[in-house]
Design goal:
Helices cover 22% and strands 38% of the residues. Strands 1, 2, 3, 4, 5, 6, 9 and 10 form an 8-stranded antiparallel beta sheet that branches. Strands 11, 12, 13, 14 and 17 form a 5-stranded antiparallel beta sheet that branches. A 3-stranded antiparallel beta sheet has the order 16-15-18. With 356 residues, the chain is an alpha+beta fold. It has 2 domains: 194 residues, Roll (Pnp Oxidase, Chain A); 122 residues, Immunoglobulin-like. Strand 15 and strand 16 form a beta hairpin. The structure holds flavin mononucleotide. The site of flavin mononucleotide (FMN) has 24 residues, from strand 3, strand 5, helix 2 and strand 12.
Length: 356
């Protein structure tokens, strides 16, 4: 196990968070994980936190309420197996099943908390919840209420959009990367720096120095931005609607379900590997940006590949189509189709066609 300074790993944590990482919990004998796409590493009260946003209906919510702790697992390499596990863990609840065993993931005990670390997603943050807060619904802008909390999918569904989030501030009490040797034999983990009093002191001193530098850099860059950039453009990236699929298996998703269950021939050639959504506002023009990544599974190029989505209103009626195409998708390569939805009556969308 390699102890790490979290600040050195911020870029990788943030890059992977955008695609989905895991929050793990353990209450008594019940271990569970869920995928998250929202979160922050930050500083408050001189402490370093990982802040996570968990909707009320999640089983993870119950687990954290009971234990007030969690671990965060970040992959260092997103293999198809890891992408598949993250997709599965983000699309099923762990109330009745053991998602970690289903995905053949290897657990090791947390050191400062009971929640586990995961060998296959080795970058680990052990967190103790020392503060939590319910979202103040009245302060959430209307367009975010409509896009993130449309209230049409109930709490017991993993795709629930009804519930608001509890924000959990997990103080990072230990951070490390699991190594092969951690799983080689009994006693290997004994005597690591974090377990010794000296280690704790020097780690603390190092963190305080780094936090001060970070704070100064933050203030500097904020001031620089204020001076140099007109603040007319802002982008809010949504979490719930970004899903990661493995190259081989698709996880159920209402937005592509109708299309995939018809088994169109094109799916022999291409796999839907990722769906992401972001929400942007440029002055007063609002856009929901849908990005669908397809992979050419064959050894031949595919020409003039087009993706079409239907944009739906509140009642599920189609109000318009949006499409995007690529001239050539090379063998075994990915391409991300960009499908911006600008219609302000748009509530949802569904995949309508993938065609050559
Ligand atoms: C990429 C991705 C990101 C997600 N991010 C979050 C999140 O930040 N907060 C949340 O409450 N749910 C999020 N979810 C949904 C949960 O992972 C999902 O509902 C899961 O089944 C909950 O599991 P549990 O009931 O076992 O806790 C995300 C799902 C995916 C696929």
């Amino acid at each position: 196990m390699k102890q790490i300074d979290v600040t050195e790993y911020l870029p990788i944590i943030m890059q992977e968070l955008k695609k989905g990482i895991l929050v793990n919990t353990k209450n008594g004998d019940k271990t569970n994980s869920m995928t998250i796409g929202w979160g922050q590493v930050g500083i408050e009260w001189g402490k370093m936190f990982f802040t996570t946003y968990i909707r009320h209906g999640r089983f993870t919510h119950e687990q954290i309420e009971a234990t007030k702790e969690f671990t965060v697992s970040v992959p260092l390499e997103r293999t198809p197996e890891i992408a598949k596990a993250i997709g599965y863990i983000g699309s099923k609840t762990g109330r009745e099943i053991d998602k970690l065993t289903d995905m053949n993931l290897t657990l090791s005990d947390g050191k400062e908390v009971k929640s586990p670390a995961i060998k296959e997603l080795p970058l680990t943050l052990e967190c103790k919840v020392i503060y939590q807060q319910e979202q103040n619904i009245d302060n959430i802008p209307q367009e975010i209420k409509e896009s993130c909390y449309p209230q049409d999918v109930p709490s017991d569904n993993p795709r629930a959009n009804k519930d608001y989030h509890t924000v959990y501030y997990g103080e990072i009490v230990n951070a490390y990367i699991l190594e092969e040797s951690d799983f080689a034999g009994v006693g290997v983990n004994n005597g690591t720096v974090v377990n010794s009093a000296n280690g704790n002191k020097s780690t603390k001193a190092l963190w305080i120095t780094l936090l001060s530098i970070l704070l100064l850099l933050g203030i500097g860059s904020f001031a620089y931005n204020k001076m140099n950039k007109p603040q007319t453009y802002r982008t809010v990236v949504r979490e719930e609607m970004s899903s990661v699929y493995s190259n081989t298996g698709l996880v159920n998703d209402s937005r592509i379900e109708k299309f995939t269950s018809n088994n169109p021939k094109i799916l022999d050639k291409v796999a839907i590997t990722e769906i992401r959504e972001s929400f942007s506002e440029n002055n007063s023009n609002k856009t929901k940006n849908v990005a669908i990544t397809l992979k050419n599974k064959t050894d031949k190029p595919i020409n003039d590949l087009e993706v079409v989505i239907n944009v739906l209103d509140k009642k599920g009626n189609i109000i318009e189509d949006v499409d995007d195409e690529v001239k050539t998708l090379a063998p075994q390569s990915d391409y991300t189709f960009n499908l911006p939805i600008k219609n302000n009556k748009a509530i949802n969308w569904e995949l309508s066609e993938i065609k050559e």
